[in-house]
Specification:
This protein has about 325 residues and is of the alpha/beta class. It is about 30% helix and about 25% strand. The structure holds flavin-adenine dinucleotide.
C-alpha cells in the first residue's frame, strides 16, 4: 500500500494534524510513507517526520506556492500522488488539509472521504468517519475502485511515533505549474496576539446574538481578561460582523475544551454545541431558561447578560480586593 501524506507546518515544525495523518497511514499498513511538504523544510520538521515513519519527504518549492494557494497546492499533491503511484492520498483534517485534498482529488478524479477515524479494510476501502459535527460516526464503503483521498478527523486519534523511524530521505523539486492555478492566493495574514488562543485557553467567555453589538463585547473582554481567558462567539455574531471568524466556536469554527466555558446570550444550537461540549464546565447566562445552552449547562444564570456579566466582574474584583 503506497501512501502520500500532505504535511502541514506549525511554525518551524510539523502540525499535530500531520502526525495524526502519519499515524493513520501506518495503522492502515502503509509501507513506505511518502510525505509532501510545500515550501522549505526545517531540520526540526524533518526529524519529527522521520520519527513518525516518513520514508521520503518531497519538498516542493515554487513562487506560485508561496503563502497558501489551495489550487496550486492541490495540483502539487496530485503530482506527488502520481509520482509515487499512491493508493491512498492523506491530508490532516484541518480546513487547509481538506481544501488542498479536495483539489487534489478533483485533479486525480478519485473519491475523497473526510474526517476519517479508521480504515477498516482497503479492498474495498471501508472507513469509520465523523459526520454531522461529531454527533454521528459513520461506517462507509467506497464503491469506486482505485486510489482514495482521505482526511483524518482532527484531534480524534493520538499521534504515535513509529516503532522504527523512517529514513525520511529528502527530495527537493520544483513542480511545473500552470499560472492559471494561481487564481486564489493569500494576500494578507493577520497575526493574532501572542499568548492564549481560543483552542488552548483555560477560560472562554463567549457571546452570542444576545450581546447585541460589537461594542457589547467589552464587558465580556473585561471578564475574560480577569479570568485569564479569551473571548469566543457564536456564528450569529460573526455573521453580523461583530467579531472575526477566528473567535467563532462550533462546527464551522473552533472546537474548544477549556476548564470553564461561559456562554452569554447563546442559544446552544447543535452546530455551536459540538464546538463547546468538550468544556469541563459550562456556565450559561441567558434570559431564556429553556434555551438549549441553559438546559445542557452545568450552571446557569437566568437574566440579562448586560447586567449579569458586569455583576460577576464586580464580584470577582471585590473578592480579590478583600484580604
Ligand atoms: C452548516 C452550519 C454550520 C454552523 N456552524 C456554526 C458554528 O460553528 N458556530 C455557531 O455558533 N453556530 C453555527 N451555526 C449557526 C447555528 O445554527 C445558530 O444559528 C447559531 O449558533 C445561533 O447563534 P446564537 O446562539 O448567538 O443566536 P440565537 O440562536 O439567536 O440565540 C440568542 C440567545 O441569546 C439569548 N438572549 C437574547 N438577549 C439576551 C440578553 N440580553 N441576555 C441574555 N441572553 C439573551 C436568547 O434567549 C437566545 O437564547 C451553523 C449553522 C449551520 C447551518
Amino acid at each position: 500500500m503506497t501512501t502520500v501524506v500532505l504535511a502541514e507546518r506549525a511554525g518551524d515544525t510539523i502540525s499535530g494534524g500531520t502526525l495524526e495523518a502519519l499515524t493513520l497511514a501506518r495503522r492502515m499498513g502503509a509501507g513506505d510513507v511518502a510525505v509532501l511538504m510545500v515550501g522549505p523544510l526545517h531540520d526540526d520538521a524533518a526529524t519529527v517526520l522521520a520519527a513518525h515513519g516518513a520514508g521520503s519527504i518531497h519538498v516542493a518549492e515554487h513562487d506560485l506556492l508561496a503563502g497558501y494557494n489551495p489550487q496550486a497546492w492541490g495540483d502539487v499533491l496530485a503530482g506527488a500522488a502520481r509520482h509515487v503511484d499512491a493508493d491512498v492520498v492523506i491530508a490532516p483534517g484541518s480546513d487547509q488539509g481538506n481544501e488542498v485534498l479536495a483539489h487534489a482529488a478533483a485533479v486525480l478524479d478519485i473519491p475523497m472521504v473526510a474526517n476519517v477515524l479508521e480504515v477498516e479494510s482497503t479492498e474495498p476501502f471501508t472507513v469509520r468517519r465523523v459526520r454531522w459535527g461529531g454527533s454521528l460516526i459513520e461506517r462507509a464503503t467506497v464503491s469506486a475502485g482505485g486510489p482514495l483521498a482521505l482526511s483524518v478527523a482532527s484531534h480524534a486519534l493520538d499521534p504515535e511515533p513509529a516503532d522504527t523511524p523512517g529514513s525520511a530521505t529528502v527530495h527537493p523539486f520544483t513542480p511545473e505549474l500552470d499560472p492559471a492555478v494561481a487564481g486564489c492566493a493569500v494576500v494578507e495574514r493577520v497575526q493574532r496576539a501572542a499568548g492564549l488562543t481560543l483552542a488552548t485557553a483555560p477560560v472562554v467567555v463567549s457571546g452570542g446574538r444576545g450581546v447585541g453589538s460589537a461594542d457589547g463585547f467589552a464587558p465580556l473582554e473585561e471578564l475574560a481578561a480577569l479570568l485569564g481567558g479569551v473571548v469566543g462567539c457564536s456564528r450569529a455574531v460573526t455573521n453580523n460582523g461583530w467579531r472575526n471568524h477566528t473567535d467563532q466556536v462550533g462546527q464551522t469554527g473552533t472546537r474548544i475544551a477549556p476548564e470553564i466555558y461561559i456562554a452569554c446570550g447563546i442559544s446552544g444550537a447543535i452546530q455551536h454545541w459540538v464546538g463547546a461540549m468538550a468544556s469541563k464546565r459550562i456556565l450559561a447566562i441567558n434570559t431564556d431558561r429553556n434555551a438549549n445552552m441553559v438546559t445542557k449547562a452545568d450552571d446557569a444564570v437566568i437574566g440579562d447578560l448586560h447586567q449579569v456579566v458586569p455583576a460577576i466582574t464586580a464580584e470577582i474584583r471585590r473578592r480579590r480586593a478583600t484580604p
